[in-house]
Amino acid sequence: MTSRAHVLLWTDSTAAYLDAIKTAGLADRVVLESLPRKEKPSADQMARTEALMAYAAPPGLLPAMPKLRWVQSMTAGVEGWLALPDLPANLTLTCARGTHREAMPENIIGALFHVAKPYAAAVENQKRGKWVPTMAQPLTGKTLGILGLGAIGQDVARIAAVLGMRVIGTRRRPEPMANVAEVLPPERTREVLAQSDFVLVLLPATPETDNFIDTERLGMMKPGAWLLNFGRGHVLKDDDLVAAVKAKKIAGAMLDVYEEYRLAPGHALFSLDNVILTPHLAAVTRESRGRASVAAAEEMLRMLAGENPRNFVNPEAAKR
To answer: What is the pLDDT of residues 11-47, one digit of tens each?
Structure first.
């Protein structure tokens, strides 16, 4: 990069990123341009951009940026970038890994309480002016199975253990860990599904996990169990979930991610009373957005200094 690197900030919410860049002392070291997500970079912008900070990019764009050397994904997930058929081989890709360590576990624990406690039903009955006796189910003594015991999963396990839950789960390289009774390899997912009262899916998006939760694996769950997907949408086959819930193969599901980012109006998932849908909110808070912007500014400092980035994405490792 040149001493005054041209950086394109391609997002709608720029305030946190502009503040982080200024605080990091980068304002005089870069030529910064911002562009709303609905607009496409101009030919001049593509010609001069050396660093791109964005949520995603369409096929054909990155190869049209001859000076582009670095892309900072504004999210921890990078499957959209890795799926690009023309991702330049010499491009350095970094992400916002680690910036959701507070938001995600809190929202997941909130989801557990939501499905176990009848507060939502009580609110609806209140709106109708009805007094309807209901009964909550305890979390204490129940088994939480976590598919994908990474950093977020381990934080959830810590909180769940405090609540008196038994936690088991899978990890690509299984090893004993605090607050988890059993850590099993992915090949033993069946055992986790069979034992769990709540199944939390936090698997990354890889070829091996595409449609991983399908009719067969849903059939391995307890009929009274709930499925919670807070990982990646393509891990779960939506149509198979709809069929399993309608057939009462499982008690229900709470989803924050989907096969398509925004469910189309009339999607079958909307019609199911015991499927709760949230709009991909688990990782997003004002604070997490601030941490992501600071992380991006820090990565920019490393790149300008010729240092290795902290959250470098190895495309080959990510595909395995």
So the answer is: 888 888 888 888 888 888 888 899 999 999 999 999 9
Q: Is the same domain home to 123 and 93?
A: no
What single DSSP character describes residue 292?
Answer: H
Which of 27-31, 145-149, 163-167, 308-312 bottoms out in mean pLDDT, i.e. has the lowest? 308-312
pTM, rounded to two decimals:
0.79
Beta strands in the chain (DSSP E): 5-10, 30-35, 51-54, 70-73, 92-94, 143-147, 166-170, 182-184, 198-201, 226-229, 252-255, 275-277
The neighbour count for residue 127, using CB atoms within 10 Å, is 8
d(CA 246, CA 273): 10
Q: What is the mean pLDDT of residues 235-241?
A: 95
Please give the tally of structural domains in the chain. Answer: 2
Cβ pair 290, 103 in contact under 8 A: no
- Note whether 15 and 122 are same-domain residues: no
The count of other CB atoms within 10 Å of the CB of residue 295 is 22
Supply the angle between the helices 286-304 and 15-23 in degrees, to the nearest 10.
Answer: 40
At residue 29, what are phi and psi to the nearest 5 degrees? -105, -10
Report the alpha-carbon distance of residue 319 to residue 301 in Å, rounded.
28
Q: Do 208 and 108 share a structural domain?
A: yes
Amino acid identity for residue 250 in this structure:
I
Name the DSSP letter for residue 236. B
Residues linked to residue 10 through DSSP beta bridges, in sequence order: 35, 54
277 beta partners: 255
Lowest mean pLDDT among 13-22, 200-209, 279-288: 279-288
Report yes or no: 199 and 224 within 8 Å, Cβ to Cβ.
no
Q: Is residue 306 over pLDDT 50?
A: yes
Can you tell me which residue has the tokens 């909307």? Answer: 270
